[in-house]
């Protein structure tokens, strides 16, 4: 397992640092371990040890390691490099990965790095920098092999032999006109068995999946998954000119980043949250959502305060009150997670929202009746008070219905406002289920007990 291997290497490095055996660490970082494992090792180390390890990596190996580091940590190291070192390490990056990193560096540094590149490499990176990193244009790699439709298969073979190495993930050659308009593709599997005298036009495929440069990265990932693609050409939709191609390894990164985004956002954390980031930086990032949560907690407390007189008279209500809010919170979270997933997969739209809402309301009602019966029976046995049992049962059903309603409609509403549902919905949902739960339970108790 890679994780277990990384932890074993981390223990070795920690022991070596404590004993001062830096030569052993330098050996591990500069040849004994693959660049991928060195990157994992850096990401698994606290800031102080991370800097020590980075300083022990030879300058010739820095680029190899940087390309496997998370964007946040990679940018931290690159910001401390001078232009000469940045130029040296940039040679190890593919154009799309380099463009992603340069977007996070000061503009003056970016200009110096671009000025030091060859004209061909500079044009490639500048083309990528003109697009958002979360779009197909930002994901694409400009390193592609193109051929003309009027040449023979024999000429294609001779042309390919002149390349020392084909670009990674090359599964087909892209056929373009003299003005670089995409005409089709020639799969390598088809090329290998073709008659050497046949022309590219005779055997090329024209029903290719093409991607507009402005397409969001999430849609690109869904397209690759749906069509089982290894690579896909990226074009300018207005001119149909070929701009580059996206490969499956870049799409895997998008899928992983989206999964991390959803997981961290549910806890109010940033996408680039570093497990070992400095104390003040971590504190600042988390403080915002703790403050928002505090406000919502005060709202719930205010609702409880409205029924202080009722609570003073019936102490059992204070004991049972959290049950109603908790049941609503869990039920709402289940619905919310399902709907956010559906939105991410583009499965939810105007045509099926009503059906989904009706389904969740019915599920909420059935679960409400089931668990309200259980809660009421336990309450009656515990406090020997049938009125309180009926009240908590009714409040449970009401809160589960509101949880289903909010969990279904809230993320759809936030999406329409351009707000990320994964980031904001859980905080709002918790507030709604707490407030409705307390209001229903204590309100009914005020009506029927006091």
TrEMBL record:
| Statement: the UniProt record of this protein carries the keyword Acyltransferase | no
What function does the entry list? Answer: Acts as a magnesium transporter.
Q: Which InterPro entries match?
A: CBS_dom (IPR000644), CBS_dom_sf (IPR046342), Mg_transptr_MgtE_intracell_dom (IPR006668), MgtE_N_sf (IPR038076), MgtE_transporter (IPR006669), SLC41_membr_dom (IPR006667), SLC41_membr_dom_sf (IPR036739)
Q: Which UniProt keywords apply?
A: CBS domain, Cell membrane, Magnesium, Membrane, Metal-binding, Transmembrane, Transmembrane helix, Transport
Superkingdom is: Bacteria
Q: Which NCBIfam families match?
A: mgtE
Coiled-coil regions listed: none
Matches recorded under PANTHER family: MAGNESIUM TRANSPORTER MGTE
Does the keyword field hold Magnesium? yes
Complex formation? Homodimer.
> Which chain regions cross the lipid bilayer?
287-308, 314-340, 361-382, 388-410, 422-449
What CDD domains does its record include? CBS_pair_Mg_transporter (cd04606)
Protein family (similarity comment) = Belongs to the SLC41A transporter family.
Q: What is this protein called?
A: Magnesium transporter MgtE
Species annotation: Marinomonas arenicola
What Pfam family does this protein match (any one)? MgtE_N
Residue intervals of the CBS domain = 204-263
Task: Tell me what topology the record assigns in the membrane.
Answer: Multi-pass membrane protein
Location in or out of the cell = Cell membrane; Membrane
